[in-house]
Amino acid sequence: MADDILDRATKTSALSLGPLCGIPISVKDIYGTSGLPTFAGSNRQLPESRWSRDAWLVARARKAGAVIMGKTHTVEFAYGGVGLNPKSGTPRNPWDYDADRIPGGSSCGAGVSLWEGSAMIALGSDTGGSIRIPASLTGVVGHKTTKGRWPTQGVVQLSATFDTVGALTRTVEDSAWFFGSVDPFWGDPSSLLEKLTKTSLDGIRIGIPECSIWEACQNDLRNVLETSLTELKAAGAQVRRDRGALLDKAVDLYLTCGIGKAELSAFLNTHLPAWIEELHPIVGTRLEDPHPLDGSEHHEALLKQRLISAEASELFTDTDVLVLPGHLVTPPPIKEISSDLEAYSHINYTTLRATCAVNLLGLCAICVPVGLDSTGMPVGLQLIGRGGDDERLLGIALALERSLGTAEARLGSPPH
Length: 416
What we know:
It contains 18 helices and ten strands.
């Protein structure tokens, strides 16, 4: 896949048609996109006056020559990590057609679009893991950019505090090429890739944080992840246990502070009040009784978030990147949770638990496929870097991919 993108780019560079010329891209249905309606996973179209123009990242991709193929499914208003949407439909995970397992959310159609071949790059958003969760569950690469690196302009808001935009790709090399193509600092993916390919695993310090996230990981998934880390150590990386208590504190705060709930509720009340009563219970029940944005509870939650994120640099005192599972359990069949709110809430908590600390702490992360679990479902390894170190993170992930192999080399292809 990366070779396809690079070959196309090389053939068209002389014509100055852009580094993504002709590359098909899918767009999560919370991005404003010229010529395409936006539903945000709801059952009616959002006002054209606000979401009929290209969002910032869509515009950057078009400027680089990409071809927008269409919109992908999302959880209603992106509020959930499972990928379930009883209104617009839930894409099934391509790795098990018989059981119809969840694809992960909220960018639930993004990873599916890559494997089905309708796109080579899939735009998503990540507020608590919504790029990395579907990437991990469907066996692709998902890069959660540093908060504020790229504007969220033109994207339906979930949380002004945590929202980030980015992409899912088939390989890390594709992810780096896309990053270099749309990032205003670069605008030239060739020079970025030239820089990144100089990164070697030799001497890279990889920290395995001692935290409940690793402890909660299903045994067969953890075995796959530990095997990949052993391979990285054999390739020259320094892999060692590290402090991780701050990650547990961040997870607990993210899942209890109510920041996302308050900010999404306020957004809906301000811009789409008629949509609130129509929300499906898996979203609507979790939005009940939000803190008002001008209230003391919300201000206190934001203060706690800022205080704990100020400690994030301590996680990288002796490490270049931290590693966590991309998800913690084999994705369940859709039918097991679609009509049971308690079961849905449990798996939603479980999916977010592996990823949400990154958002609360203002870090960047990338999820890379490294193997299959005992049921033949993908397993993703999450690499986490300091906030602002997206290029460094991409370089390490690229070195990892060149050592371990791409998704197709490592996992094979989904059954057909």
